[in-house]
From TrEMBL:
Highest taxon of the lineage: Bacteria
Keywords attached to this entry: Signal
Signal peptide (from-to): 1-23
The protein's name: ABC transporter substrate-binding protein
Pfam families listed in its UniProt record: SBP_bac_1 (PF01547)
Species per Swiss-Prot/TrEMBL record: Actinophytocola glycyrrhizae
Family matches, as SUPFAM superfamilies: Periplasmic binding protein-like II
PROSITE patterns, sorted: PROKAR_LIPOPROTEIN
Lineage: Bacteria, Bacillati, Actinomycetota, Actinomycetes, Pseudonocardiales
Amino acid sequence: MKRKALLGIGAAAALLLSGCALGGGESTDDSGGSAQGPVTLTFQSLAYQDSTVAATKEIVDAWNADNPDIQIKLTQGTWDNVHDQLVTQFQGGTAPDIIHDESSDIMGFAEQGYLADIDQYLSEDVRNAVSQDVWNTVTTADGKVVAAPTLLQTYVVFANTDAFKAAGIEVPSGDQLTWDDLRAAAKKLATGGKFGIGWGLKQPTAAIMNTALGFDGTFFETKEDGSATIHVGDGEVAVPEKIHAMAYQDSSLDPVTLTQSGTDVLPGFLSGKYGMYVGGNFLAQQITEAAQPGFNWTVLPPLAGSAGPVQAANPQTMSVSAQSKAPEQAAKFIDYFMNAENQAKLAQGDWLIPASAPARDAVAEQTKDIPVWEPILKTGDDLKGAPFQKAKNYPQWKDQYATPALQQYFANSISVDDLKKQLTDGWQSLG
């Protein structure tokens, strides 16, 4: 899901002034794993939707009430600049004890030794609740588990069911929606000055990398040490080409939306300008809050390419800083944070999919009277790890090369061959 304020520095300074090292531990045992005596640990959360912020605070408050010797101090970060913020914090020795991020961003930090191995501190219940494919996204080449995977984002198609009815189109159903069927529906919906689709792709790389797996587009061959070679072939650019074709050949996708964020495009969907709206499943929360009474919408079946409805499993994560003086206590909080009740609460706040199977079951049961939850959860059935998640230079390539190149392509200012070249040359320039 999806980075520049130095919120952790102030928290660290306050703790240092109180005579405790960052993390509050007064002393540690010989292994450096468990502080002796009461500790106060900083937890930098990236939750931003009101419902999820409230759920996170509720979880922290409940923990603090039951654990007087391990107190959690909640601080706020932002998805917009979390990578740069963590770079500054790690280099300055001010990193929070407990770090909220995502798997594709943390592996470079893990390779540099900034994240603790928390495997030994996690309970069997937590380990068994998450599939091995997802655990692999937070496990280093030498077997260190550097995070617990929490929530998963997928890219879904939201549909205005009244627009489909007005156009005489049946709302797609079933196990999957092919890109060709999406394009055909978009063409039929694009009438009367309206577009079939709005898709906010101002920051396009995550969406493209995640959905490329549906066409066997892997982009990278990654080695155990995180080094990788790049290959940008037909599968890797299949999704960008389909988006480009809908915008510039069919005029069924509003090209202006390709320069906007998802939240910028949402009002057009809610006002009927677009019959469909593509974005992260978390946007369902904003639709429920912003839609006018009588606005009828649903989520269509998972988008499927030639390899099926496959997307990358790029979970949000909870890590422990290797600089923390109390990693065992920090991991205990993470273990608590990962229980099914807490994950189900957070998932519903953000309309995301829990990595934990018991939490997914809980969400399904608790939302059975809300029909759009079923297709959202369905999109989590075919998630798998992707090579880019282990490529240690991925965050830099994403920001410096992939995003500008995709933006130019979606602005119709370069060709698909130019796109391939820029993506390839950019990666190779990083050495």
